[in-house]
Amino acid sequence: MESWGFGSIWAADRLIIPWNIETPYPYAEGDEFIVPPDRPFLETLTVLSYLSGQTKSIELGVSVLVLPYRHPVYWGKVVTTIDRLSKGRFILGVGVGWMREEFEALGADYHRRGVVTDEQLALWQQLLTDQHASFDGTFYRFDDIAFEPKSDGDRIPLWVGGEGAAARRRAAQFGDAWFPYHVEITVDQLAADHADVRRRAGDMGRTPDQVALCACRPIEVTEHPVEQHPGKLAGTPDQLLDAIKDYERIGVETLALQFMVPRYPERMRQIERFATEVLVHFE
Fold first, then answer.
1. Which of 35, 93, 99, 115 is geometrically suited to a Cys-Cys bond with 64, CB 3.0 to 4.6 A?
2. Is residue 51 assigned to a domain?
3. What's this model's pTM, rounded to 2 decimal places?
4. Nearest CA among 18, 122, 19, 115 for reference residue 72
C-alpha cells in the first residue's frame, strides 16, 4: 500500500462474531453482517501496532474503534503507544458500535453506548492534556494520575464515525473530522450533512473549519463500464476517476475505500489496479 501511493491504511474493529446475529447491520445491503463467524478477524490495535514497525510514511487508522468495548484508560494507553511507535502516524477513528450481541458477550451496555462514548471522549481529552489527570464522571473516575506517553506530536487526530444526528453532534463536539461510512449516499447529501456538523460545531463555540470532512465508502473496480449510480462507487478506473473528483469538489480531505471483493487475491488486484490507474491522478 505504501509503495502504491496510498496516504493511509485502515483496520476495522471486531472482537467477536456471534454465530447468530439478529441486530440489523447498517453497512451492507440486506442488513446482514458480511464476515462469516469462522473467518479469522485480527484485533485492530494489535494489527496497527505491527504495521507501525513495517511501514515508514503511510498513516495508520482504525475505522472505527468501538469505544464502549474497552476501558478508556486502557485503549488510550494502546493508542498513544502506537502513535509513539509510528512517530505520529496514527489516526484514531471512533464509534459507538451497532451489534447488540457483541455488547452482551463483552458485558458492555448496549443501550447506553452513546453516553458512555461521550464520557470516554471527554476523559480522553483530559488524559492527553493534563499532567495530573483527574476525572469524575458517571461511568469512570480517577484522581491525580500520570498518563504517559501522550501524543507523539501536537495531538492524535480524532475522527468521529457514525452517520446519524447523534454522530454528527459528537463529531462537532469532539472531532478533528467527521468520518461516516455510507453504503449509498450522493456527494451532495454528504456535503449537506457535513454542513450540519459545521453548524453544530459553531453552536458549541468551535470554529467550523476545525471539523474536516473525511469519508469511508465501499468501492468496486470493474473490467467493463457499468451504469453509474450517484450514490455508489463502482466502475472502470476512468469512471471511478470522474466519480472521486466529485468528493474532491465538496472538500473531502481523505476518502477511505473498502474494496468489496470477498477473496484476497482478487481484492489485491483491484487495489493495485486502483492505485496504478486512478490514484496516480491525485498525486
1. 93
2. yes
3. 0.97
4. 122
